[in-house]
Design a protein that fits this description.
With 348 residues, the protein is an alpha/beta fold. Helix 2 runs parallel beside helix 4. Helix content is 31%, strand content 19%. Helix 1 links the parallel strand 1 and strand 2.
């Protein structure tokens, strides 16, 4: 297939482009080279066109002869402040809407796009007495006192986390999360109106070689890595017992390939979401400890007790739908992958 890949110069985009080429597909790369994600003057991967995907005229000619689009371009990260809202809306919401309109005009009806675990907000929780519960946003007073776990809204007892599947309600709690929910809704509307076939892949915590160095929008693994390289102990927020799912970038790229090869078989007018995850939960403190042990054993992580109001406590995915419907199972165990990541090259 001839596949237009947006975000092709990014962390996941570069690995996905290589995986698609290895699978025999022709890749047309597009990237806006946002300053927050790309160092000025850094070399571009081969065959990547610089286009600002927010504007319809930028798509002229790019979609000619295309069979499908893999849409990874986005402004990422939780957002530094509420002042970032227009940036997320412009790049993620408007960029996706412009792409989908251009696909409709060009008669391209297959879409795989990057979504994120952040669409869920807090994950899935259960009270021993009251069953599945949706926790309220965490109280600032409780966080100040170091009470980080979510209480049951009915009895106040500590809630236990469970794996969240794709049927869970979406509950965005950051600028980035709101924009990812919007992208999924745009894909649903486009699929019905075009008509098209769309898959949204809800990536969990992606890490691996080539990850960009420390920026305000970096993932926690890159932030820990940058601190260690500078001779500083990684600072772990809350008590470090927050549970996440870390998935290797090579596995994410393979999931993208599988999705692109599967989307044509879907019913016209359909949109389906998938968790892309390792299926193995780890705590944030474990991530810091494994990286410290590999890179700077004398620098133990510092558990600070600090918190960010927009952060969720636990989010752990169910990998079942992606396994059953896409044939995707992660091949890199996070504990081994994170240990390797401590010394793998980053991208400036």
């Amino acid at each position: 297939m001839r596949i237009v890949l947006t975000g092709a110069a990014g962390f996941i985009g570069r690995v996905t482009a290589a995986a698609l080429a290895d699978a025999g597909h022709e890749v047309v790369g597009v990237d806006a080279l946002l300053a927050d994600a790309h160092r000025p003057g850094a070399p571009l991967p081969p065959r990547v066109e610089v286009r600002d995907v927010r504007y319809a005229h930028e798509w002229a000619g790019l979609l000619r002869g295309a069979d499908a689009v893999c849409h990874l371009a986005a402004m990422v990260g939780a957002g530094v402040s509420a002042e970032d809202l227009p940036l997320y809306a412009a790049h993620n919401d408007l960029g996706t809407a412009s792409l989908l309109a251009a696909m409709h005009r060009a008669g391209v009806h297959l879409l795989v796009q990057a979504s994120s675990m952040v669409v869920y907000g807090e994950g899935r929780y259960r009270c021993r007495q009251h069953g599945v519960r949706v926790p309220s946003p965490r109280d600032r007073g409780a966080l100040d006192e170091g009470r980080f776990e979510n209480p049951c809204p009915r009895c106040g007892m500590r809630l236990a986390w469970e794996r969240v599947d794709e049927s869970a309600a979406m509950d965005p709690r950051s600028s980035y999360a709101a924009s990812k929910v919007a992208q999924e809704h745009y894909a649903t509307a486009w699929a019905r109106q075009s008509p098209g076939r769309a898959l949204s892949l809800r990536y969990h915590n992606v890490y691996g070689p080539g990850m960009p160095r420390d920026t305000p929008y970096s993932g926690v693994a890159a932030i820990f890595r940058s601190a260690l390289e500078e001779g500083r102990a990684p600072r772990v927020f809350e008590d470090g017992r927050q549970v996440r799912d870390f998935v290797h970038v090579a596995d994410v790229a393979r999931a993208n390939v599988l999705a692109l090869e599967a989307v044509a078989e879907r019913e016209a007018g359909s949109h389906t979401a998938y968790n892309i995850c390792s299926g193995t939960p780890v705590t944030i403190l474990e991530v810091a400890e494994r990286m410290t042990a590999e890179l700077a054993p004398r620098l133990g992580p510092i558990v600070t007790g600090e918190y960010r109001l927009g952060d969720v406590r636990h989010i752990v995915a169910s990998p079942a739908r992606a396994r059953d419907e896409l044939g995707f199972t992660a091949s890199v165990h996070p504990r081994e992958g994170i240990a390797r990541f401590a010394t793998e090259p980053l991208r400036d």
